[in-house]
Amino acid sequence: MMKFLFMMIFMIPLCFMKNMFWLVQMMLFFMMFLFMNLNLNIMCFFNMSYMSYCDIISFGLILLSIWICSLMIMASESLFKLNFYFNFFLFNVIFLLIMLYLTFSVLNLLLFYFFFEASLIPTLLLIIGWGYQPERIQAGMYLLFYTLFGSLPLLMGIIYIFNDLNTMTIYFLKFFNMNMYLLYISMIFAFLVKMPMYFVHLWLPKAHVEAPVSGSMILAGIMLKLGGYGLLRVMIFLQEVNLKLNYIWIIISLVGGLFISMKCFCQVDMKSLIAYSSVAHMSMVIGGIMVMNYWGFIGSYILMISHGLCSSGMFCLANINYERLHSRSLYINSGMMNFMPSMSLWWFLLLSSNMAAPPSLNLLGEISLINSLVSWSNISMILLMMISFFSAGYSLYLYSYIQHGKYFQGLYSFYVWFISWVFIIIFALISFKYDNFKGWFYFYLILNKK
Amino acid sequence: MFFFILTNNNSNKMFFLFILFFSTLISISSNSWFGCWIGLEINLLSFIPLISNSKNLLSVETSLKYFLTQSLASINFLFMILIKFSLLKNFDMNNIISIMMNSSLLMKMGSAPFHFWFPNIVEGLSWMNNFMLMTWQKISPMILLSYYFNKNFLIFMIIMNLIIGSLGGLNQTSLRKLLAFSSINNLGWMIFSIMISENLWLFYFLIYSMMIFMMISLFFLMNMYFMNQLFINNMNFFIKMNLLINFLSLGGLPPFMGFMPKWIIINFLLINKFYFLTFIFMMTSLIIIYYYIRIIYSSFMFNYFKMKWMNLFMKNNMFLINLSSFISISSMILSTFIFM
User: Fold this and answer.
1) Which of A224, A317, A229 is nearest to A278 (CA)?
2) N- or C-end of chain A: fewer Cβ atoms within 10 A?
3) Which neighbouring-strand residues pair with B311?
4) Cβ–Cβ of A129/B300 closer than 8 Å?
5) Chosen from A88, A91, A121, A149 to mutate, greatest number of chain B CBs within 10 A
């Protein structure tokens, strides 16, 4: 595991040399390939060393973060062409990747907090440094302060746990029971703000819309999943309080997901619509984790991975449209099928994954989550039905408004060009399901056993 | 400070600088309270010539204000020492006397609620004098505070320090006043560390003075006193990054150096079960980070309207600037190598 850390650290001097933009991106692809070939063991922690480990959850999330970082660099090709501080941009991306890699792979809970906070700084730099509109200042402030407001009580909680248990190793936490209400709130609140849950979600539409394409991709792809990962790790030693109080968060996030899905229909900005759909998906993830089922656990993990891929892909497509028409508004971006019919294929594939149509990975996640939530309470059937229905609704709304219809009369001409990397996202979407076939097969076996 | 005095043709002030250092040593290492008082008086007397400059009316007024407030505090301190000696047999008075002695020392330091002179005076001093005021002048009152403090009173003072330091800086545009309010806030952290252990105070104080030194020397070299000056000039990329890193480090954000003292103090706060106080520490530090980020907008945004002709000539100091950025970023990681 240190080998990947050193590979990333030594890519930093490479970012500052001349004409190394594509080399860095290729090396990130290479690192993804190397990381995929680790010996994967589902049932336990593997590759343990003094301070790092790998679990099935960490493995998937680290893989996702390396993948999205390499795609971020590919999508920001215009920075390289226009020579807009791309050296520092590459440094930012690699630094962010190091922080994310370390977040998911350290054994110590305090170090997890340290890198969790540290990953905010390069994100803030990306949003304010390379964003497109002047509103990005306010967006950066919202991002930083919402997240910090949640995570400072998390620091208090972690240090309290250390003083009580004299250990911070994540693996040993499952042997303890710290069932205190205040500790529970302080530990969970940070991750709920990060996820985001409905009432504290306000930073997400701002930050996702104002960020450049790379910032949006990493935010939607991985930064939201940091919250999910934290919840998955931290709930183990709080089980009794969880059983008593989790219904609050499930209800807030499911009803909130319903409201957010309805709000998606009112959006005019493409990126805003995709951002709100992220909140709706994450609301189901929160619901799934909070019910404390095994199906919920697995379903939320699968939905996190698939949503990461799908959402980043959609942000990249929205940026492709933005680069050509210089607008993200649905009024101007209409009738694109007349100009870029191949692009409409990618829009359709990604939006159908977003609405959890077969055979995408989102479908597997949503089915597992629906199972777990309905097993918790039958009434949640109504909410889940509405959320799934509306997610199909707004995905189709986005697709048909962008692709069909007559194009905007004010367009003169633009560059019709097709980037082939989106293909790789789709391949990843499907291949995550079938390639590691053995791994997922074991998943099914275990699911059936339980 | 030495280089500043030597290069600005003010070597007659070197004498007063040495006496300043010795006065602190007298105050700290004395066996009786009288010795402490004498050290404080010599401190005051030797700091006044350092800050007064008879050619500048603002400087004269500033040094007069400093003299008045500090001598009031010293006289109060002397009076309380004398009362303590004469009422030695009556232990019921311990509470009141310790409160009064602590108040006079807090006024010497510029801590709330006796802080009103501090932003005023800081506005009238140059950057290097500010550095002495914010770091060295706090040493002897703090150590004297650690000899005889009243825990409940000090906890109340800490809360006032934190709140005033964070809320007071929200409406300021002058960089000196902003650093003054941040200094008041950090005084809150330092007073708490005194209550735990003097070693811990020393650790926090050293890291705080190192961060303040990096920041003040950057502002001194750029000759900047107000926030709008940050947006006008043509800063080189490394200077911008240094500014960004230093302010975020002072705010206590990971992964920078400034996170470590705050983390250790929160550890001790929670060991001693001060839960609500910890919450106040955290939330006020959020407000402080807000106004730091307002200052460093100029370094976040890569292209903004700047005057092409206002070039900063900082080639000779680039090594130190880069070194200080490197230290701020990597000290957390390097510190793990020290303790192994």
Assistant:
1) A224
2) C
3) B234
4) yes
5) A121
From residue B153, give the alpha-carbon distance in Å to each of A319, B161, B187.
58, 12, 15
Task: Say what the pLDDT of residue A445 is.
Answer: 43
Residue B271 at interface with chain A, using a CB cutoff of 8 Å = yes
Residues of A in contact with B282 (CB under 8 A): 152-153, 155-156
Please tell me which residue of chain A has the smallest CA distance to B293.
A141
Domain boundaries, chain B: 1-339
- Looking from the CA of A105 toward its CB, the CA atoms found within 13 Å total 26
Prior bond of A212 cis (ω within 30°): no
Residue A414: per-residue pLDDT: 57
Residue A272 in contact with residue A400, Cβ under 8 Å? no
- Minimal CA separation from B282 to chain A, in Å: 6
Please tell me if residue A156 touches chain B, with a CB cutoff of 8 Å: yes
The two tokens of residue A213 are 């394409």
DSSP B234: B
The minimum CA-CA distance between A99 and chain B, rounded to whole Å, is 10
| B289 near A CB under 8 A | yes
Distance from CA of A143 to the nearest CA of B (A): 12
Residue type, B298: S
**Which residue in the set A118, A120, A156 is minimally distant from B266, CB to CB?**
A156
Q: With an 8 Å Cβ cutoff, are A148 and B300 in contact? A: no
Q: A121 vs B248: CB contact, 8 Å cut-off?
A: yes
The domain spans of chain A are 2-408+416-449
| Residues 6 or more apart in contact with residue A330 via CB below 8 angstroms | A267, A268, A269, A270, A398, A401, A402
d(CA B207, CA A26): 41
- A155 at interface of B, judged by CB pairs closer than 8 A: yes
User: Within 13 Å and on the Cβ side, how many CA atoms surround A293?
Assistant: 23
| pLDDT number for residue B24 | 95
**Own/partner long-range contacts of A320-329 (Cβ < 8 Å, ≥24 apart):** A320/A419, A321/A270, A321/A402, A322/A213, A322/A270, A323/A78, A324/A414, A324/A415, A324/A416, A325/A408, A325/A411, A325/A414, A328/A269, A328/A270, A328/A271, A329/A268, A329/A269, A329/A270
**Spatial CA neighbour of B149 closest among B94, B229, B86:** B94
> Tell me, what's the pLDDT at A239?
86
Q: Residue A159: which of B270, B283, B297 has the nearest Cβ?
A: B270
Verify cis geometry, omega within 30 degrees of 0, for the bond prior to B113: yes
Contacts of B24 (CB under 8 A, 6+ apart): B39, B43, B136, B139, B140
Which residues of chain B, if any, have pLDDT below 70?
1-9, 88-92, 337-340
Spatial CB neighbours of B174, under 8 Å, sequence gap ≥ 6:
B123, B225, B226, B227
- Whether the pLDDT of residue A331 is over 50: the answer is yes
Q: B28 — contact with chain A (CB < 8 Å)?
A: no
